[in-house]
Amino acid sequence: MANFAIGSLLPDMHDSGGxxxxxxxxxxxxxxxxxxxxxxxxxxxxTGKRVVLIESGRHLGGLSSGGLGATDIGNKQxxxxxxxxxxxxxxxxxxxxxxxxxxxxxxYLAAGARRWDAEQAWWMFEPHAAERVFNDMLREAKVPVxxxxxxxxxxxxRKQGLRIAAIVMESGRVFGASMFIDATxxxxxxxxxxxxxxxxxxxxxxxxxxxxxVQPHREHERYACHHQFLKPVDPYIRSGDPAGxxxxxxxxxxxxxxxxxxxxxxAYCFRTCLTDQTDNMVPVMKPKNxxxxxxxxxxxxxxxxxxxxxxxxxxxxxxxxxxxxxxxNNNIHAVSVDNxxxxxxxxxxxxxxxxxxxxxxVCYQQGLYWTLANHPRVPDxxxxxxxxxxxxxxxxxxxxxxxxxxxxREARRMVADYVMTETDCLGRCTVPDSIxxxxxxxxxxxxxxxxxxxxHVRNEGNVQTEGNFExxxxxxxxxxxxxxxxQCSNLLVPVCLSxxxxxxxSIRMEPVFMVLGQSAALAAVEAIDDGCEVQAIAYARLRAxxxxxxxxxxxxxxxxx
Length: 561
Known about the structure:
The chain is 27% helix and 16% strand. By secondary structure, the chain is α+β, with helices and mostly antiparallel strands.
């Protein structure tokens, strides 16, 4: 990578009389190689500014290259700018004959994907294809990428007044810049910079909402019923005996009062890439730490009469799955790939705790797949269906074919001067400083399992508003990606932005993160050019920049492919 050595010294925030050497200096430092981070770095480089992208792992693209190949977005006309460019590059990738190993492009189009061909933007893709596109974009823009570096969580942010002067990695490497962008799913840079944030669900009263907080009575809605127990299931280790304790992941005492806030967050999982192509298949093995009690709930659910495969295999339910006979697997039904209730400590956890939670999610989900394919108490048809699938041998080749990115659906959320809420998502108000559009229904996965008043297990937290695929796009405020002016003046946060729990459930889609990453980068450039704080830039000039870069800022705007 490029190393910009400088001779000047920057003050250490922990010792106003001391100085420290800044080994590498840039105009913009982007921390986090998610899809938002990649786009932010590329956009910054295209303006001629010096930028570096820092990623703690070895892969770029976050969920977009980490298994989430079946893009969630709803109204695709809301997506412009570099996000649209990414999906156009995916379209171009699959025009090449050598991209097709199993079947042909024409066969795939005939199965239902021809509409994407007409748009010249493909929305379902293999993980390796997405990572290749991201890497191409970075290489073409000559963006230096630093892999394997994590922020020092104890002394990693050095500020001079309200400005971040530099950030320090665990290794001791120091990166200084005029502007910083936190593009991580966790928001560590934001938090360690002293910026206000929240974790969990606000009460409905807090923001004048109806879908936030505890939601125990939504199981009869069109979408929520797919993630709720439809048969009574006993929650106790010894069936019918509370004295014997509860099965893993279930708590006693009820869900909480309707509409009240709590610290619970929606469940995580891995978006595994499975295939039924036998010569490209790796079986999912029984994990070493397999605990049969973790699947007792599922087995009892089958014995109560549930008779469906609780793995959302995209190729099995749509006319066209991912190319080359692959799937993007997601949560479905009451017990599935979501490790419900066992991620609440992740957002504020240190690296050790997060790694323990990630390993637990791997073990749970691998054990689930093995149980579905092999356990004698699983119905024969379900076992037969599951045995069709295995991990794609040509994906995630350096992580034993398992995704390198946990699906962190929600972690920290900044509390800025403007908080996006349900009111924004439903179009009941319109912000004057749009930097992009949200275009998906409010979508939260379950947050907990509890014992209800009848003594049976229930899920709680699932909210999926109607119209995900026809949702009216709404503008996202610039003020929601910048901290309060009294806290930090040169930081932008396009992923852990300022939004209520339920509004974040709509905004948290990968194409929107790319949109916000690009807008954050252009705002950072505007602040550098004007020599001002990110809170003080002239929105009219930022808006003009965004439109020149083909961002879509109003819901009535339509772009050509």
